[in-house]
Design goal:
Elements (H helix, E strand, L loop, with lengths): L5 H23 L2 H17 L1 H14 L5 H7 L3 H16 L7 E6 L5 E8 L2 E6 L4 H13 L2 E5 L5 H17 L7 E3 L5 H8 L7 E5 L2 H10 L12 E5 L5 H13 L8 E7 L3 H14 L3 E4 L1 H6 L8 H4 L7 E7 L2 H11 L4 E5 L3 H10 L4 E4 L19 E2 L7 E2 L6 E8 L7
Parallel strand pairs: 3-4, 3-6, 4-5, 7-8, 7-11, 8-10, 9-10, 11-12
Antiparallel strand pairs: 1-2, 2-15, 13-14
């Protein structure tokens, strides 16, 4: 564990206090100025695309040997820069989440009570080397009326600084404080520790990354955490699945982008259709470069598949590897998911509506899908403009974290002169 020096503590204190002051201004800012900042930031991303791509190329060159999935997460392209810009514009087009009346009721004493959404305040975002998270987190927090202190992975530092510069230009153009979106002033890991201990300065920590990062945050944080779990996701091909749909959906769920948290890591397939369909599924994925780990029942059909261990079924591959288990029925599929899944995203492919409903009600996952790829688990696809993680757990918001999930609430009580007896 890296020691938190006086210099690190002072840097965190200065950044968080500046963010706190900016958060107060942002909370009072009207929607027009926030939307103007987002649209100008989007314009700046497009205008500075070559600069951003050059910074990203420098990050890639300096990162050393990378796995294919890590390189994919780190890499920016013109299309991905454009997607960031469009995400900011989509956030600008969404209703302002702060100030919404969530509920209102009148008590027998005549008092009217309102529950009203309000900004969190200061959010600390700790994420690994995915440059687009810089724009997504900045845009969502800005629109939700909260300041954000961003600490990305060291491998993407140049890219993140270039992207944050575009956000800063947007804030300036709209007359909003630049301190509302800040980057950590150092890549020292001790700064993360300082963020986790910044109770009273940071109101909420959101980690976005692998299991190691999330575990560290959960263990060390003295600040409330909106946890992002690993994506140990399943696609279950039910006996009543349309074979061509199953082939199409699984190929996308596994291989569209293997390094994203919505990728399928385990295929479950009913024994009744496995002899005819499993060879085709494996053939499709093999042609796309996928490797496999299979249980005994799957290997009885395809003996050439490497055997799977219990550890394989508990692994978030984030790579072109798929675990395979043949199951007897939906009950066995659900038992497997409850044992090995991370309550992130799970899907069923079937033409049987009753089976689909039983599956969706039987999983505890933040997102359940019927006849669709698990890679649709994404805030942009949900209409949130962007996301800053997939929240799981039972004590807070679940699923893609967008604008509404970045607000808390308070109460307003309206009276006519009542006094309490």
């Amino acid at each position: 564990m890296n020691a938190i020096t006086d210099t690190i503590a002072q840097a965190l204190d200065a950044a968080a206090r500046a963010a706190r002051e900016a958060a107060g201004q942002l909370a009072r800012a009207g929607r027009p100025s926030k939307d103007a900042a987002l649209r100008e930031a989007a314009s700046r991303l497009r205008a500075r695309q070559e600069e951003i791509l050059a910074a990203n190329a420098a990050d890639l060159a300096g990162a050393g040997d990378l796995t294919a999935s890590f390189r994919d997460r780190l890499t920016l392209t013109p299309a991905r820069v454009e997607a960031m810009a469009q995400g900011l514009e989509e956030i600008a087009a969404l209703p302002d989440p702060a100030g919404r009346v969530l509920a209102e009721w009148t008590r027998p004493n005549g008092l009217t009570i309102r529950r009203v959404a309000q900004p969190m305040g200061v959010i600390g975002m700790i994420y690994e080397s995915r440059p687009n998270v810089t724009a997504d987190a900045a845009g969502l927090c800005l629109k939700a009326g909260s300041a954000v202190l961003l600490r990305g992975g060291s491998e993407s530092a140049r890219s993140a600084v270039a992207i944050r510069g575009c956000i800063a230009e947007g804030l300036r153009a709209a007359g909003l404080p630049e301190a509302a979106v800040q980057m950590a002033p150092t890549q020292d890991r001790a700064f993360v520790g300082a963020m986790l201990r910044a109770a009273g300065l940071i109101d909420l920590i959101i980690p976005r990354g692998g299991k190691g990062l999330v575990t560290r945050v959960m263990q060390e944080a003295r600040v409330p955490v909106l946890a992002h779990a690993e994506g140990l996701n399943h696609t279950y091909v039910h006996a009543a699945a349309d074979p061509e749909m199953a082939r199409r959906v699984l190929a996308n769920a596994k291989m569209r982008r293997t390094g994203v948290c919505g990728a399928t890591e385990t295929l479950l397939i009913d024994a009744a259709i496995a002899p005819s369909l499993l060879p085709l599924l494996v053939q499709d994925l093999s042609a796309l470069g996928c490797a496999f780990r299979a249980d005994e029942r799957a290997r009885a059909i395809l003996p050439e598949l490497p055997p799977a261990t219990e550890t394989d079924f508990a692994t978030e591959w984030l790579d072109a590897i798929l675990s395979i288990r043949v199951v007897k029925d939906i009950t066995e599929a659900l038992t497997h998911i409850r044992r090995f899944g991370s309550e992130h995203t799970d899907a069923i492919v079937t033409e049987d509506a009753a089976a689909a409903q039983a599956f969706l009600e039987g999983i505890d996952s933040a997102v359940g899908l019927w006849n669709a790829s698990t890679q649709f688990c994404d805030g942009g696809e949900f209409g949130f403009g962007a996301e800053i993680g997939i929240a799981t757990g039972r004590l807070h918001a679940r699923g893609p974290v967008g604008l509404e999930q970045l607000c808390t609430y308070r109460y307003q009580v309206l009276g006519t002169g009542q006094t309490r007896p």
